[in-house]
Specification:
The protein has about 475 residues and is of the alpha+beta class. Among the domains are: about 210 residues, FAD/NAD(P)-binding domain (3-Layer(bba) Sandwich), CATH 3.50.50; about 90 residues, D-Amino Acid Oxidase, Chain A, domain 2. It is about 30% helix and about 20% strand. The strands form 5 sheets. Strands 5, 6, 14, 15, 16, 17, 18 and 19 form an 8-stranded mixed β-sheet that branches. α8 runs antiparallel to α9. The radius of gyration is 22 Å and the shape is globular.
Length: about 475
C-alpha cells in the first residue's frame, strides 16, 4: 500500500522524532510540501519520559555551536527554552572543571551552553516544529526497510509497532527524500545492503563506560544560580576512568551523572551513588555538594556509550534521495556532550546544501552526506582522542597518531589552566564554534610550548557565596 496525499516528488520522510529528527523536519519545510516524521514511540504532549529515549535520564548540554544552528532552524527556540526553565551559562565563567591537567580557571565568557532536561528540550523543539501544518507525525510506527534501488531510494517501508511480533502488514511511504535520524539503533547499513550496496566503513571505540544519573533538588540558596561542576577522568592514568558532572536544570534541580570505565563502573544502587561521588572520583566536590541536596529520583544506569562512526560519505556509491544524520551517522560517548550540537549543525548543513543545489538535483544526496559529516569530524576526534587510551577500547590500542595528538592536547589543556587566551581557543573547539585547526595556529603552538602563565589552583574555584549556597562552608 502506498500512502501519499501529495505527489512523492514533494514529500520527505524523516525517521525518528527526537531532537535531530524534528530539526531535520523543520529544515525540509522550505523545500517539501509534506514532511512525515515517523517514530516508534507514542510521543508525549509535554516534557515527559518516553521509552525510546532512555539516555534522557542522564545529563545533557547543548554547546553554543549547536545552539546557533538550532536557532537558525527554529528562531526564538532558545528564549522559549529559557522561559520554560532552561539555563544559559557562560563558559568558562560558570564552569568549575577539573581536568587531568588541573583545575580550570573561570575565565570571562567565551561561549555558552544551554542546560535543560532532555525531556524539556525535546518537547520544546517538538512543539515548535509540529506547529507547522506541512509536518505530519506518524507515531507507534517503525521503519523496516527502504524501497527503490541501489541508485535511488523511492521511499520507506513501515509497520505498526503493535504488529511487530506478528509480522503485521507493511506500508510504503513514498518520498523524494528519506532522512534517517533514528539514532544508535539505526538500520541504515542493513537497509542499504539489502539493496545491493556495500557495507560502509565503521569504526568503534568503546571505553566500556557506564553512566549512572540521579535528579536532586538543589539546596535552597543554590536554586537560582549555580555553576556547572565537572570532574573529569584521566585516560592516561592506567586505571579505570571515573568522572562526574552536576548540571543545573529546570525547577531548581540538579542532574548528577557519574561514570566509570571497565573495572570502575558505578552501580544502580541508590545507597552507593553518594559514596561513588565522594570516594571514586578524582576529587570529592561533587559528592560533597550532593550530600546537601535532596534526591528526587532513583538511579538510572546506561551502558550504551560506545563511540561508533559510519563513514557513509566515503562509500563509492551513494543512492539518490537518502541521507543519514545524528547518532545514526556518528554516536559519541555522551560524556563529552557534543552529540546534540554536532547533529544540529549537520541538519543546518542539510538545509544549506538543498538550498544551494536545488531540490531533486542529481547527486544532491551525495553532496548532503558529505556535508553532514563535517561537524562530526571535530566531535569524533575529541571523543576518541581520550577514549582510545582506556584498556579494551579498541582491538589494537591507540595508534602513533593518537599518542602524538594526545600528548599535544595534554600540553594544551595544562596551558589552558593558566592562560585565558589558550582556554578561549580550546572552548572555540569544544563548543563546535570553530574547527580543531585553530589549535595548531602559530600563537597557540607557542603558548603551549611556554605553558601556563599562572600557577595551578589547589582546589575547585567556587566563590565563597557558592560554597555557602552548596553547603560546603
Amino acid at each position: 500500500m502506498n500512502e501519499s496525499s501529495t505527489p512523492a516528488a514533494r514529500t520527505a520522510v524523516v525517521l525518528g522524532g527526537s531532537h535531530t529528527g524534528m530539526l531535520a523536519a523543520r529544515a525540509l519545510t522550505g523545500f517539501a510540501d509534506r514532511v512525515v516524521v515517523v517514530d516508534r514511540d507514542i510521543l508525549p504532549d509535554g516534557a515527559e519520559p518516553r521509552r525510546g529515549l532512555p539516555q534522557a535520564r542522564h545529563a545533557h548540554l547543548l554547546w553554543s555551536g549547536g545552539v546557533r544552528a538550532m536557532e537558525e532552524l527554529l528562531p526564538g527556540v532558545t528564549e522559549t527554552l529559557r522561559a520554560a526553565g532552561a539555563h544559559r551559562l557562560p563558559v568558562t565563567t560558570d564552569m568549575v572543571a577539573l581536568s587531568s591537567q588541573g583545575w580550570f580557571r573561570r575565565w570571562p565568557e567565551s561561549h555558552h551552553v544551554v542546560l535543560a532536561g532532555r525531556d524539556l528540550l525535546d518537547a520544546t523543539i517538538r512543539r515548535q516544529v509540529l506547529a507547522d501544518e506541512r509536518i505530519e507525525l506518524l507515531t507507534g510506527t517503525e521503519a523496516v526497510g527502504l524501497t527503490g534501488t541501489a541508485s535511488a531510494i523511492t521511499g520507506v517501508r513501515v509497520r505498526s509497532v503493535e504488529d511487530r511480533t506478528s509480522q503485521g502488514q507493511e506500508r510504503i511511504l513514498s518520498a523524494a527524500l528519506v532522512v534517517d535520524a533514528t539514532g544508535r539503533g539505526s538500520g541504515a547499513s542493513r537497509w542499504l545492503a539489502a539493496l545491493g550496496l556495500p557495507a560502509p566503513e565503521v569504526r568503534e571505540v568503546d571505553s566500556g563506560l557506564v553512566y549512572a544519573s540521579r535528579l536532586y533538588l538543589r539546596p535552597e540558596e543554590a536554586r537560582d544560580d549555580f555553576p556547572i561542576v565537572n570532574v573529569q577522568a584521566d585516560p592516561h592514568a592506567g586505571s579505570p576512568g571515573r568522572a562526574g558532572l552536576i548540571l543545573p536544570v529546570e525547577n531548581g534541580r540538579w542532574i548528577a551523572t557519574l561514570s566509570g570505565t571497565r573495572g570502575g563502573e558505578p552501580s544502580a544502587d541508590a545507597d552507593d551513588f553518594l559514596r561513588f561521588a565522594r570516594e571514586g572520583l578524582p576529587h570529592p566536590v561533587i559528592g560533597d555538594l550532593l550530600a546537601n541536596a535532596e534526591p528526587l529520583s532513583a538511579v538510572s544506569l546506561t551502558r550504551s556509550t560506545c563511540n561508533r562512526r559510519h563513514y557513509y560519505e566515503r562509500m563509492p556509491v551513494w543512492p539518490e534521495n537518502f541521507t543519514v544524520v545524528g547518532d545514526a551517522l556518528a554516536a559519541f560517548n555522551p560524556i563529552y556532550g557534543q552529540g546534540l550540537a554536532a547533529a544540529a549543525q549537520s541538519v543546518r548543513l542539510l538545509r544549506n546544501v538543498i538550498r544551494r543545489q536545488g531540490w531533486g538535483t542529481p547527486g544532491l544526496s551525495r553532496r548532503i552526506q558529505k556535508a553532514v559529516a563535517r561537524p562530526v569530524r571535530g566531535a569524533w576526534d575529541m571523543a576518541i582522542g581520550q577514549d582510545v587510551f582506556y584498556p579494551g577500547a579498541t582491538e589494537n590500542g591507540p595508534t602513533l597518531r593518537d599518542r602524538l595528538v594526545a600528548a599535544y592536547v595534554d600540553r594544551l589543556m595544562r596551558t589552558a589552566t593558566g592562560n585565558g587566551r589558550v582556554a578561549r581557543r580550546v572552548t572555540d573547539v569544544t563548543s563546535l564554534e570553530r574547527g580543531s585547526a585553530v589549535l595548531l595556529a602559530p600563537d597557540v603552538l607557542l603558548a603551549a610550548a611556554v605553558g601556563p602563565l599562572r600557577p595551578p589552583l589547589d582546589g575547585p574555584p567556587l566563590t565563597a557565596q557558592e560554597r555557602k549556597a552548596g553547603g560546603l562552608s
